[in-house]
Design brief:
alpha+beta, Butyryl-Coa Dehydrogenase, subunit A, domain 1, Butyryl-CoA Dehydrogenase, subunit A, domain 2, Butyryl-CoA Dehydrogenase, subunit A, domain 3, 3 domains, 4-stranded antiparallel beta sheet, 3-stranded mixed beta sheet, 11 helices, 11 strands, 50% helix, globular, FAD, acyl-CoA dehydrogenase activity, AcylCoA_DH/ox_N_sf, flavin adenine dinucleotide binding, flavoprotein
Length: 363
C-alpha cells in the first residue's frame, strides 16, 4: 500500500480502475525513491534535475491521455492522478511534466497533421526530445490573445520575430511550440527546433518558487522555421484555447498534490513533535487545523475526480476546468500555509520539505 492511499478519507480509491491505481502507485513509488531525497538540493541551487529524466522516461507516462505514437493513452483520471503525485513530490517536477506532456505534446496531437504527429511525438513520448509551449509574452500574460510575435512566409519557411516570457522548459527543450500571428493576423503554432538560428532562450533567475524547473525569456530574431513545422490544424487563437482548456484540469490535480504533501508532512510532524509533555497533535487547536486541512483535501479529491470523469466522457467544459483550477489552487494555498505554521520554526528549513511546498504553491 502506498502513502497515497492513506490520505483517502472518503475511500476514493474504490472509484478508480486497477490501471489508474497502478500508474498512480508506480509514479508515487518512483517519486519517493528518486525525487524526494534529491530535490531540495536542486531547488536550493535553482538547477534543473537532468539526472531524473531517464527514470522519468522509464515510467512511460509522457503524453498522458494521447493515444498512440508511443504515448500511454491513459484516462483523464489517471493523468490527473499522475499530475497530483508528481506535484506531491515536487512542484517543479509537476510543472516540467505539465509543460512537456500536456501543453507541448497535446498541441501537436490535437493540432498537428498525421505526418507531424508521427515525426515529433514518439521521441517526445520516450523523452528523448523535450517540449515547451511558447505563448505568453513580456506584455501579454493573462491576455495572451493579444500576442504580438509575428510569422512571415518566405518561400518554404516562416520567419518568426518577437519575444516570449515565462516559457517552462524553454531553455532545454528540443521542440518549442511558438504561437505567432501571420500576415493576415491569424494565430498559428510553429515547432521551433533546438539550434535554430535567430532563436535564443535565457533562463530567468531570481525566482522564489518552482526553482528546480527553468522558465525562459525567448527572443526570436528572424528565426527561420520550415513550413512543414507549422501545425496544420491551427488557424486561430480559438484552437490555442482548445489546448489550454483540455489541459487546465491537470493544474487542479497538481494543487491537490501539493496540498496532500503538506498535510501529510504536517500530520507526521505533529504526531512526533512533543511540547509540554505530549505530541502537539493532542492539542485541540492543532487538531482543528489538521481536520480542516483533511476536509478541504477530501473536497478537492472528489472535485478533481469528478472533473476528470467528465473529461473522460467528453462532458468537461472550459468553465468546469477553470472553476476546479481556481478552487483547488486557492484552497491549496491555505492548506500549505497552515501546514507550514504547524511546523513552527522548523517550517522554514528545506530539510522538512514544507518550506519548498510553501514557496511553490505561490506559483
Amino acid at each position: 500500500m502506498t502513502e497515497t492511499a492513506r490520505t483517502d478519507f472518503y475511500a476514493l480509491e474504490e472509484l478508480l480502475t486497477p490501471e489508474e491505481i497502478d500508474v498512480r502507485d508506480r509514479v508515487a513509488d518512483w517519486c519517493a525513491k528518486e525525487v524526494t531525497p534529491r530535490i531540495n538540493d536542486y531547488w536550493e541551487r535553482a538547477e534543473f534535475p537532468f539526472e531524473l529524466v531517464p527514470g522519468f522516461a522509464e515510467l512511460g507516462i509522457a503524453g498522458g491521455t494521447i493515444e498512440g505514437y508511443g504515448s500511454p493513452g491513459m484516462s483523464a483520471v489517471a493523468a490527473g492522478l499522475v499530475a497530483a503525485e508528481l506535484a506531491r513530490a515536487d512542484g517543479s517536477i509537476g510543472t516540467f511534466n505539465g509543460v512537456h506532456s500536456f501543453l507541448a505534446m497535446q498541441s501537436i496531437a490535437l493540432l498537428g497533421s498525421e505526418e507531424q504527429r508521427e515525426r515529433f511525438l514518439p521521441a517526445m513520448a520516450r523523452m528523448e526530445k523535450i517540449g515547451a509551449f511558447g505563448l505568453t509574452e513580456p506584455r501579454h500574460g493573462s491576455d495572451a490573445v493579444a500576442l504580438e510575435t509575428r510569422a512571415r512566409r518566405d518561400g518554404d519557411s516562416y520567419v518568426l520575430d518577437g519575444q516570449k516570457k515565462w516559457i517552462g522548459n524553454g531553455s532545454i527543450a528540443d521542440y518549442v511550440l511558438i504561437w505567432a500571428r501571420d500576415e493576415e493576423g491569424q494565430v498559428g503554432g510553429y515547432v521551433v527546433e533546438k539550434g535554430t538560428p535567430g532563436f535564443t532562450a535565457r533562463v530567468m533567475t531570481g525566482k522564489t518558487a518552482l526553482r528546480a524547473v527553468w522558465q525562459a525569456e525567448i527572443t526570436l530574431d528572424g528565426a527561420r522555421v520550415p513550413a512543414e513545422n507549422k501545425l496544420e490544424n491551427c488557424r486561430s487563437f480559438k484552437d490555442v484555447s482548445t489546448i489550454l482548456d483540455r489541459t487546465r484540469y491537470t493544474v487542479a490535480w497538481r494543487a491537490l498534490g501539493v496540498a496532500m504533501a503538506s498535510y501529510e508532512l504536517a500530520l507526521a510532524h505533529c504526531l512526533s513533535r512533543e511540547q509540554f509533555g505530549q505530541p502537539i497533535a493532542g492539542y485541540q487547536l492543532v487538531q482543528e487545523k489538521l481536520a480542516t486541512m483533511l476536509a478541504e483535501i477530501t473536497n478537492m479529491q472528489l472535485m478533481c475526480w469528478r472533473l476528470s470523469s467528465l473529461a473522460d466522457s467528453g462532458r468537461m467544459t472550459a468553465a468546469m476546468a477553470s472553476l476546479a483550477k481556481r478552487h483547488c489552487c486557492a484552497t491549496a494555498r491555505a492548506i500549505v500555509a497552515d501546514a507550514r505554521d504547524l511546523f513552527g520554526g522548523d517550517g522554514i528549513l528545506l530539510e522538512h520539505h514544507i518550506a519548498r511546498h510553501h514557496a511553490d504553491i505561490e506559483a
